[in-house]
Design goal:
β3 and β4 form a beta hairpin. The protein is α+β, with helices and mostly antiparallel strands and 208 residues long. It has a five-stranded antiparallel sheet. The chain starts with a helix and ends with a helix. Helices cover 54% and strands 18% of the residues. The chain has two domains: 3-38 and 158-207, no CATH class; 47-125, no CATH class. The longest helix is centred in the first third of the chain and has 34 residues, at 3-36.
């Protein structure tokens, strides 16, 4: 193995690891809260208000898809509600729209009555710990056609993807660097085997 190649991969492994450490910390902390289903401060009471004379875009009720989302953001901006729309439910019979709008540490629910041009808004500050859970779940597999409709979440989606790919690089480069150290091969093989057995046991328990 060329010493120059080894040194390059070692330095890249180090710097990529340092760059990823804050993202890994967010995912690690949020997993603890997700597993134990308890988030400090997330159950804070909501602040409620009602807005009248809400101005709506033309033909708002008949819009679909991304056009509807764009129009909804226009309405929400006028209401002073900002964030990613994670849920949008239309109730044609009552001419109502119910939005769930989120940002890390804040969650809002907006009940828009098109017929009366009013909006009932409930905003809850969920705190910093809940923000890590929000970032872990967003973007996620639910409502993929709706999520990621703000610049913040689009950037976070790219960063989340980059974290996965760079972690794969760290794993492969770590194995490469370990293989170059003859003195560490025996204990490395033992740890690889232990990890493989543990993973295999978990998979077997899930599918059995």
């Amino acid at each position: 193995m060329s010493p120059r190649v080894y040194a390059f991969i070692r330095d890249l492994h180090l710097y990529v690891g340092l760059f990823l450490s804050p993202f890994v910390l967010v995912f690690a902390i949020s997993v603890v809260f997700l597993v134990h289903a308890w988030i400090p401060g997330a159950a804070a009471p909501a602040e409620k208000r009602t807005v009248t004379d809400v101005t709506l875009p033309p033909d708002f009720e008949n819009l679909k898809g991304r056009e509807q989302l764009a129009a909804a953001h226009t309405v929400l901006d006028r209401l002073g509600v900002h964030g990613d729309i994670s849920g949008l439910r239309q109730i044609p019979r009552d001419r109502r729209f119910v939005f769930t709008v989120g940002l890390p540490g804040r969650e809002s629910s907006v009940d828009l009555n098109v017929a009366h041009h009013t909006a009932a808004i409930a905003t809850r500050q969920t705190g910093g710990w809940d923000a890590t859970v929000y970032l872990h779940k967003m973007p996620g597999p639910h409502n993929v056609n709706v999520r990621g409709n703000t610049t913040f979440m689009l950037v976070w989606r790219w960063l989340a993807d980059a974290t996965v790919y760079l972690l794969l690089f760290l794993s492969l480069s770590g194995v490469y660097l370990w293989a170059a150290l003859k003195a560490e091969r025996r204990i490395g093989l033992a740890l690889l085997a232990a990890g493989a057995v543990s993973f295999g046991g978990i998979v077997y328990a899930l599918v059995a």
